[in-house]
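Quick one: structure tokens for this chain, please?
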Amino acid sequence: MAQAPLSSSYLDIAVKKILVCQLRQIGDVLLAVPAVELLAQRFPGAEIHFFTEKKCAPMLQNHPSITKIWELDKEAIPNLFQEIRYYRKITAERFDLVVDFQQLPRIRWVVMLSNAPIRVSYPPRWFQRLLYTHHFQPEPGYAAHYKAGILKPLGITVAGDERPHLYLTKEERAEADRLLRVMIPEGERFISVDAAHKHLTRRWPARHFAGLMDLMIDAEPDLHFVLTHGPGEEEYITELRDLCRHKERVYRAPLLPLRVVAAIIKRAAMQLGNCSAPRHMAVAVGTPSFTILGSSGLGWTFPSPEHAHTFLDIYCRPCKKTTCPVNVRCMEELTPNEVFPKAMVHLQKWGKTQAQPME
């Protein structure tokens, strides 16, 4: 079925209420924010709602372009009947435009029930084509740019320099400062570290992280490290710290709300870690980052020199898989001695040179 062209004058009249859909994961939801901002620029005055999972909602809170966040709490919905009832509550808003970034089954329910006159997504598979009125295949590139690229049927052009933004509250920044006062001597720098990941193919081993941090402290003795983590990752983070020679300069943060983690990253000289949500938080709050890549591709690195990555150059990388038949060579064989000079050069060139002031 041919896609009907959308004229600018029709869009200006028709689009007053928008629903953006990205259920998960945390980093992916944050990477959808530039598309929200482009929609807000294209349709000033329109309400923009966002449908996502409850765990991801903190990435959207306090954003000036988002009118309402619809948080899906899967544990609180006992059956399909209650689930559809919730989707009907969302679609009762009578959206003029629905943008679907994932085409997951739960999102497809919302798209179908919305009856919105304009429904935009990536090119769908044949059995989903009737759900969408318009679709577009963006050019490969940075994930946030790629997502925003599907908005082209709406007359929205992606410039290429869009980055996600997190709007932290005064209270969130103050909570981060309170915690940092306990851990970091006044005036000294620290690196925030996200070392855990649920998939081995994207998790550099604890012994490697410990070795890298020790090497960096040997080179810069006034440097500190703050280990952040998510639920269920406490044991891994404790193991990592125990492996460090310089334990006195490595701190394990308590389990914190995502937005307080982002506030800690904002204060850091640099964000160090695996390919996961905190690297995108660093982009959003203006902190340089250095990421160790395993199975991940290069499209997750923001195209700016203050955000860098390293990886082991072997034939099977990036496979983009969560399991590995060759003993996760890309992570196991990438040693701290290989990563250290690259990470140190990046810190010296792009890391914040002054200790961040506490508010």
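The first strand starts at residue 17 and ends at 21.
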